[in-house]
Amino acid sequence: MPDNLQILLDHRPSGNVSPANFRIVRTPVPTPGPGQALVRHRFLSLDPYMRGRLSDAKSYAKPQEVGEVMQGGTVGVVEASNNPRFKPGDAVVGMGGWQLYALSDGRDLRVIDAKAIPIQAYLGPVGMPGVTAWYGLNKIIAPKAGETVLVSAATGAVGSVVGQLARAAGARAVGIAGGPEKCHFAVDELGYAACADHKSPEFAAQLKAALPDGVDGLFENVGGEPFQQALRRLNDFARVAICGLIASYEGAPTALPDMRIFLVKRIKMEGFIVSDHMPVWPQAISELSGHVAASRLKWRETIREGLENAPQALIDLLHGENLGKMLVRLD
Ligand SMILES: NC(=O)c1ccc[n+]([C@@H]2O[C@H](COP(=O)([O-])OP(=O)(O)OC[C@H]3O[C@@H](n4cnc5c(N)ncnc54)[C@H](OP(=O)(O)O)[C@@H]3O)[C@@H](O)[C@H]2O)c1
């Protein structure tokens, strides 16, 4: 049997993440003990939350341990199993981390149907990012037909699903994305009515022009300057779902303006973490799988090859160099 390759967190970043924060090690492929399954990974998921866990600051989840395999979402195939829920050949999604092989006691592992839907979609539109989009849009923004929903990081793993679900609900979806290529993709492929480029010097004017009727629902993935501009466009009774603040993960904190606008415009703003809402996951995944299998939901991925490129893939994700879901392919 070949060796296992693993990427460990070597030391925590003090500023921006660099490849030197990680180290790769070669270890024997483990043998499953009682109740365990051995999974050969096919794809790793790279996610913005990983940046937060590289720091030991107190947060909603425990930090990544130094000297341990980097945690992260994975899809793969069961190679050997002493757990009756899994058999060799089963496609599975789990949290196997940055390594070729992982053992699981089954608690974080789920068998998936990788025939109707490509296996890596379970890390994107029919996985955690898809459920995040579904939750924030349906449970916080709850758009009505004819309303305008503004989505930042509009072409990313979460944002691309938000825009399409908002449109399917009869809302007018408007995106914010970085650069003309992403904005064209947002409008031409994802069906946004308009898109403002936050890297353009004309960003504020583009956003204003894209929002003739203001914003009824803001799905915030970014924070920073795009968020400040978006707040200025909110209508009375707007709902703001705070999903992520990626501009602040390695940059300046995102501040709120004078709170008076929340009062006079009667705005509701709610932060959420998708893992707090496990009871809705089956419904969300069932709906999202139906949309993907029927090609009603478009999705894009940026794929890097090889485990050794996972650190750079994370760094590139944190710099916005992905279009759609950032993945590392392991075969
Ligand atoms: N609350 C939750 O439970 C939950 C769950 C999943 C994800 N999230 C959050 O949702 C957001 C989107 O996550 P995702 O997985 O879908 O990632 P993603 O959107 O696929 O990738 C991140 C995108 O953020 C955008 N971005 C804007 N300003 C940026 C900046 N200053 N630096 C870096 N990137 C910037 C980039 O797109 P542009 O170039 O188009 O700006 C980049 O491609 C993140 O904030 C993430 O933390 C939250």
- How far is the N terminus from the C terminus? 15 Å
Note the total helix count. 9
Helix content: 25-40%
Mean pLDDT: 97
Structural commentary:
The chain is α/β, with parallel strands linked by helices. The protein contains nine helices and 15 strands. It has helices at residues 49-53, 128-141, 157-168, 180-188, 203-210, 224-231, 260-264, 281-293, 310-318, and strands at 4-9, 22-27, 37-45, 74-81, 91-94, 101-104, 110-111, 148-152, 172-177, 194-197, 215-220, 234-242, 268-271, 301-305, 325-329. The longest helix has 14 residues, at 128-141. The radius of gyration is 20 Å and the shape is globular. NADP nicotinamide-adenine-dinucleotide phosphate binds next to helix 2, helix 3 and helix 9.
Secondary-structure blueprint:
Blueprint: E1 4-9, E2 22-27, E3 37-45, H1 49-53, E4 74-81, E5 91-94, E6 101-104, E7 110-111, H2 128-141, E8 148-152, H3 157-168, E9 172-177, H4 180-188, E10 194-197, H5 203-210, E11 215-220, H6 224-231, E12 234-242, H7 260-264, E13 268-271, H8 281-293, E14 301-305, H9 310-318, E15 325-329
Parallel strand pairs: 8-9, 8-11, 9-10, 11-12, 12-13, 14-15
Antiparallel strand pairs: 1-2, 3-4, 3-6, 3-15, 4-5, 5-7
The chain binds NADP nicotinamide-adenine-dinucleotide phosphate.
Jot down its keywords.
binds NADP nicotinamide-adenine-dinucleotide phosphate; 331 residues
